[in-house]
Amino acid sequence: VVDELNFHARVQAAIRDSELRRAVEYGTGLGYKNRRLAVYADGIQHGDAVREQAAAIKRHALRNLPDLLIKAEQTLTENGFKVLWAWDANEANSHVVDISRKHDCNLAVKSKSMLTEEIELNSALFAAGLEVVETDLGEFILQVGRDKPSHIVVPIVHRTKQEIKHTLTQTIGMPATDDTKEMTQYVREYLRKRFLQADLGISGGNFVVAESGSLCLVTNEGNGRMVTSLPPVHVALVGIEKVVETLEEYAALTQLLPRSATGQHMAVYTQIVNGPRRSVEEDGPEHAYIIFVDNGRSKMYNSIYADALACIRCGACLNACPVYRSIGGHAYGWVYPGPIGSVISSLFRGMEMNHQLAYASSLCGECKDVCPVMIDLPRMLLNLRNNAVESRYTHWLWRLIIKGLARISVNPDLFRIAGSLAFLGGANFVFKYLPGPLRGWTKYRTTPKFAQKSFQSLWKARQKRGKNG
Ligand code: SF4
Fold it and tell me: Quick check: pTM over 0.85?
């Protein structure tokens, strides 16, 4: 009940925050519009064919996931990566701590990775005495401002330019400016020193290609390339679902990802890492590790929600969702917001904590329509609602009412009587101000007036008039 209250409290706070709503509406609106222009730049038919191809690639990879993981371990190892496996967040974090101790690392530079947010890697490294610097511009601003990401792709979408200016002037001494280029340049110079001092680079991974043993990263700022090449040790943390079979498949996906995420035809940096520095190469880390993280994914793989593992984290469903666009990401209460976040948060963290998220959707279907890999998110949200009811997480009064409505709906006599009573019972008053836990329904909604006569009685009267006339 506490979590249920927290969810509602967070939503209320977000709705009341006009600056947040303005920032989120602007950022998501831009992403939504640009995605459409980029995905369908060569026509609707072409765009949908590319989506179908991407969806098929991910389903193929998921169907063969166990074999592809074994193959990936083999080829990655042949390329010089040390491959580790982590069952949960604790094990993944311990691996990184152990690696940092083994190589005597003190300062880590990190590129953007939702998985590391999911497992709370920074806190674990901090507790182990390591300094971690986020190097993605948005993540860096959040880190120095002690804030959390609120979007899968644009972590700082909830912040306005003035708020960012305030954070940077107060925390890293940036001279006050309203010019975003000057702000970026200041952070760039600030981070450059940290890149050169760092002895550990931490990244995520957008894809792993099993046939070639490659780690693939898609970024826009070049920080991913610095993280994976400047420090002497590189660790990549990757969810087990990120494996695809061939480079051709990766090529198809890597074209659709930036189109769906930001409306770019290609990301500025598309990087394929094939292990640590070779003896003939001048640049690159001496040691490269890949940690495959499960953390609930196997459980999802063996459930009716397995298809959610096809997600390539483009964020398009967030930009399209009217609920996300109204409340932003923090209201969802965990690192993954929006429609895909509602699904995976409930599965990764348990229904007990997150069953309310299944209702944070209007079920308009737009999330499914924009998804590059065609995940049926509305169907999953409906299934989660069903699970929430079956597991009795919903309010008893709500369950009672739904049961009553179901009984009335299948009994024509009861249905007729209920219709008449609804009208006679003064729908204008009763349904305008529902009591107790049902108050939420009438707080922001105007209940339509019940018709004086039912469709059946109008139809009968019409038939009668027809006969008589
Ligand atoms: S569910 Fe689809 S639209 Fe949403 S983030 Fe994942 S791939 Fe993108």
Answer: yes
